[in-house]
Amino acid sequence: MNLVIQSPEPLAAAHVKPLIALARGSHAQPVDPYAVRIADADPAQRGDVEAYCATHALDYAFVRPGLSLRDFGLVTMDMDSTLITIECIDEIADFCGLKAEVSAITEAAMRGEIKNFDESLTARVALLEGLDATALEHVFRERLRLSPGAETLLAAVQAAGMRTLLVSGGFTFFTDRLKAKLNLDFARANTLEIVDGKLTGKVLGEIVDASVKAHTLRKACEASGIPTSQAIVFGDGSNDLEMMAEAGLSVAFRAKPVVRAAADVAFNYVGLDGLLRLF
């Protein structure tokens, strides 16, 4: 396998020889100032490589030689804490003084400690009852930021002819705006009920949970004329695991431990555009 080592800062040359030795690789080639590719690496040495990389704040990935971005046809992303840096529901809750309470539920759900995502979302949204809907616009304009590397990644995959899907257990208010802003092909999320300019504390229609995310991935692949094995999926929380399991390549992005353990690749330090250095 190829072993791709990445750093959020220019990669120090002093790391290369130890990593070749740990991976039992043959030689290394620079990808760019932030990454190096080690050829003939032994995946059985993953534990040693992971320990070294964790110590030095590096990301690593074992990649099949010859794999190309054009071997895939769809990039799928979760929204909150993946495509963007925030959890929208937590920031909305801040406008009614309940951010800490809602955030605690969000964290537990994303770690997989709350098994029923529908119930956890319903409970969090109920706390927003009566909030002026203008809070959503404030969150979008003042607090929502794209994760590092997002625009670089999307420009590259779109130039390669790939399609894009944003699927979220969050809200259409944000996914619809991001879809338009970033020229994404597909988006799906939950719809907050708003009556007379106020949130009612309810979600309209089917809640987008783990199984709905996986179903949405399959439908987007079908619409794109590809099998799910040609999809790349980014996620960070336990409700992303089902769709990540169906993908040809799953990427845990600054994710909870349960997600990092299940993913093909984990980016703990580099941006979303770290994907481009794997190929």
Q: What is the CATH level 1 assignment of the largest domain?
A: Alpha Beta
What proportion of the residues is helical, as a percent range? Answer: 25-40%
Q: Characterize the overall form.
A: elongated
Distance between the termini: 12 Å
The strand order across the widest sheet is: 8-7-6-5-9-10-11
Tally of helical runs = 12
The low-pLDDT segments are none
Largest sheet: 7 strands, mixed
Structural class: alpha/beta
- Kindly report the CATH topology of the largest domain: Rossmann fold
User: Which radius of gyration do the C-alpha atoms yield?
Assistant: 20 Å
Arithmetic mean of pLDDT: 96
Give me the CATH superfamily of the largest domain: HAD superfamily/HAD-like
H and E string = EHEEHEEHHHHHHEHEEHEHEHE
Give the DSSP E fraction (strand runs of 2 or more residues): 15-25%
Q: In total, how many domains does the architecture comprise?
A: 2
The CATH architecture assignment of the largest domain turns out to be: 3-Layer(aba) Sandwich
Number of strands: 11
Blueprint of the fold:
Layout: E1 2-6, H1 16-23, E2 27-32, E3 35-39, H2 46-55, E4 59-63, E5 74-77, H3 79-83, H4 88-94, H5 99-110, H6 117-126, H7 134-143, H8 150-159, E6 163-171, H9 172-182, E7 186-195, E8 198-204, H10 210-224, E9 231-235, H11 241-246, E10 249-253, H12 257-262, E11 265-267
Parallel strand pairs: 5-6, 5-9, 6-7, 9-10, 10-11
Antiparallel strand pairs: 1-3, 1-4, 2-3, 7-8
Helix pairs in contact: 4-5, 5-6
